[in-house]
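User: Thanks for the earlier help. One more: tRNA pseudouridine synthase D. Can you show the sequence and predicted structure together?

Assistant: Of course, both are below.
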Amino acid sequence: MKPMQNHTTFKPLLPLTHTPINAHFSKNSDDFVVREIPLYEPSGEGEHLMILIQKKDLTTQEALSILSEFSGVKIRDFGYAGLKDKQGLTTQFITMPRKFEQNLANFRHEKLKILSTNYHNNKLKIGHLKSNSFFIRLKKVMPSEAKKLEQALLNIDKQGFANYFGYQRFGKYGDNATSGLEILKHGTLNGKRLKNPKLSDFLISAYQSELFNRYLSKRVEISRFSDDFSQKELCEIYKFDTQMAKNLKSQKQFFKLILGEVLGHYPFGKCFLCEDLGAEIERFLRRDITSCGLIVGDRAYASSGVAYDLEREIYAQAFEFSKKMSGSRRFAWSYLSDLAYKYDEKNAHFTMSFVLNKGSYATVVLEQILNKNIFDE
């Protein structure tokens, strides 16, 4: 597959240190399958028709356009919980006004199927999903690489993964974040004011996402260095005080927590400050809580102390524009669930399946498994 982003795009540090694994990944409908897991089941009554669709090599917006043209429902009257990849075979739930149900009676499309319908009281909104289930097939996998794949999967299943934003956020040429910053600075892009506010918001969110990736990459680096360097060396490298370095060195898990950082209940729940490091490390190891990186903007939950200083280092320029952005927190460290895998030596295929929380990217996880940029091939 051709690169989806150019080489000027920030490449975050990957947590595992094994040599890159040789395997061929192609994001097509046979080798990449996504199934949305809903936050709730349809109620069976109400003014909305909840439809489970299966799409092949279509974006969610393209699928909605096809359904809109066939049914007469305006695009704005459709509801959906999340945008699904264009490449691959994906299933997701959408809603539309129930009164148009009969218009779909004879629907047929080579790339889009209606798998089931039901009724519901509410229109689906962004974020109204529990998680996504993924199936990935890798090809041209030799037996020695299969063993490395198995070990990498077990490592990630045990320790978790860095929850970076994926290439989808940054555009074909990797310039969405730069465009977002330009809009924040000047209110224009290439000297022109954007007429589409949604596009403007999307480009600004790409800028926020890149900063999140930079911050998380720094945390991965600190975590790795905490294992590899002495307490004294950590103080020299990062200008940490002795107690901070001691706190880092005392932690046995890969991803190190920091006093004053923002934590969140896992897999969902409220944010709070890390004030009792020992107690929070125990809860982190149980996966009751996790670290939450900053999506810079107004009203984002504030960190303190060294954690705040680290954020200032990465987000300094963005803080000037906080009032122009909606801020929040995002899990920095997350986990797989329901992992399964199988190696077919005869065909040199390695298949894996796992479930990720909403907002996490399977391609990001795959890069950490293979320990390389999967779109640089």
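User: Great, one quick takeaway?

Assistant: The longest strand covers residues 129-138.
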